[in-house]
Specification:
With 288 residues, this protein is mainly alpha-helical. The protein folds into two domains: 1-157, no CATH class; 174-288. It has helices at residues 3-10, 13-21, 32-40, 48-64, 71-81, 98-116, 124-140, 156-168, 175-189, 199-212, 218-227, 236-258, 263-287, and strands at residues 147-148, 152-153. It has a two-stranded antiparallel sheet. β1 (147-148) and β2 form a beta hairpin. α7 (124-140) runs antiparallel to α8 (156-168) and α9 (175-189) runs antiparallel to α10 (199-212). The longest helix has 25 residues, at 263-287. The chain is globular, with a radius of gyration of 21 Å. It comes from Dictyobacter kobayashii. Pfam families: DUF2785. InterPro entries: DUF2785.
Amino acid sequence: MQDQDLKIQASKKDFLQEIAANNYKLPDGIEPFAFAQALLANLASPDAELRDDLSSIILAGGIINQQKLTQQQLEELLSITLDRDHLFYRIGETGTDSVFMRSFSSLIIASILFNDSPDPHFPPSTIINVKEKLFHYAQEEKDWRGYIEGKGWAHAMAHLADALDECAQHPHMSARDRQEILVQVSELATLGKPLYHEEDIRLAKIAYHIIIGRQVDEDFIDNWIDMCSTSRELDVVSWTRITNAKNVLRSLYFLLHWDNMAPLVTERISSTLYKQDEVYLEKKTAEE
């Protein structure tokens, strides 16, 4: 099938629905890498079914995770998703549909890293570059909307968290790299924009996996918990930051608690949360 024909087919929902119904197996005659590139364009679509339910899942689950691409093709696909037309597409915009391309590029990056981790073929320099690009993206992204009525999930924070999680767990990452990722998580956790579509647990999972894997030392985790606590001021932005941070720490607390892991860390989180909410406890005592 010619590239132009493939692009047309990739944009047709009925064609993609047939692939999904066939357990995401590509039809005969479809070249996986060319089709993967064609599907990337759909990540910018405001059509939730085309973007989320079909294209991203076929690309991640039916092509990348099913090992349909050569190593050279995976490297090229990763490079494409990290470029200014994908992860950094119209970066800085807020309230526009450009967020879909940026956000879902993060999701594909996460899938590529997940696929490589069990038996790494990417060189360490590639994974370090991914880490740095994700950090840069985290600093530049301004549109943190979760669900958009009529258009579905944007969820840039959740998808970024997934990519950072896969990056942190890649074998090429060192303890220092993981410390840097946790610092980035603390900055995202104290964002001044409200996060209320379960972004907290997606961020908490990054720390959870690092902690249970004992991938950084305990002193750093202790300091990192402090990074996730903010001062309680009277302005709305400060209240938003402290609410986001508390939700991330609460999620991390219960992830560790349910697995009966790292009791000293959970105790430290509990103590930090108590201090953050002590103002309410004092008020209650005074009223009594």
